[in-house]
SUR7/PalI family-domain-containing protein (Amylocarpus encephaloides), 328 residues
Amino acid sequence: MGVGRFACVALPFALTTCSIICIMIAMLAGITNKNLYMFELDTANLSVSSSTLLNIADITHLPTDNSIGAQVGQAIAPNSHNYTADDFGLADHYKVNLWNYCTVTGSKQNCTKGKFDYAATSVDLDSMRAVVQRISNLPNGTLPSELKGSLKTFQKVHKWSQVVYIISILTGALTLLLGVLAIFSKGASCVTYIVSGIASTSLIIASIMASIESSVVVAAVKAVRDAYQVNARLNTSWIATTWLAVAFSLGAGMFWVFTICCCSTSSKSGKKSRRSRGDDTEKLVPTGAYHRVDDPNQKQGAFTHGAVPMKPMNRGNGAYEPYSHAAI
């Protein structure tokens, strides 16, 4: 493994790690960090009149002609009463998170335990309607229609948001595991890139779903803000965190591609090339046929047709060496 390959893999590995950290921060909001939340509902100044809580259309046992409707309206008017958050047992603020929610009354904050699909029980419209009817003594009392639709949307979408966030964190962790193997193999880099793409796609879907469900509830509450004296706001810090995770994940995916087509997994290629160049220089030694010096076609001290000139040599001690290299 070369240093270049390690550096090539290190960048997408670091970006994937940053993405997972951002996902964990967003997912654990309200559990480890109780100051971070998806959106907040402000019910401290809630004021709902009894006439608003009564849905006349639900009184099916009464005739529907205008005279009866007018009589019912006149009967309710003298008993009109404005109900506050205290009447319904509501806290001043509600901080809604992915796995739980926190209530704030004064300076006291309480958070529920993290639970999968907690919205199915916490946002129970039938139970809410029963509370309204019990508190107001109106058997046909109901929630404001503007809020019912948004709460139903939140209830249905929130569960699937949790599911997709789980998928994104698991595939992100798998990307890190495969990223270690990608240091040694381009094949592993290819698999890592595919898994990274799944992680990015699931994270994008999760972030979109979470942003939409939060925006729908906040928009619905703001639509009745003046009528019921309630308010809601998105937490831009949480939204920024989940989309920052998306940005890191997409960036990692781009650099995982480079680990497939670039950055060799072996550090021996340089040594091989240097060795081959050394071998070439060694092969420069002439390998032509030998000729006698007295060959009329051979000039002493020069190569002719690849031949190396040779000449007899007497060492002086009686030993005789018939040929030796000369003029090389």
Residues 55-78, 268-277, 300-304 have pLDDT under 50 and may be disordered. The CA atoms of residues 42 and 93 lie 5 Å apart. The chain has two domains: 3-261, 287-328.
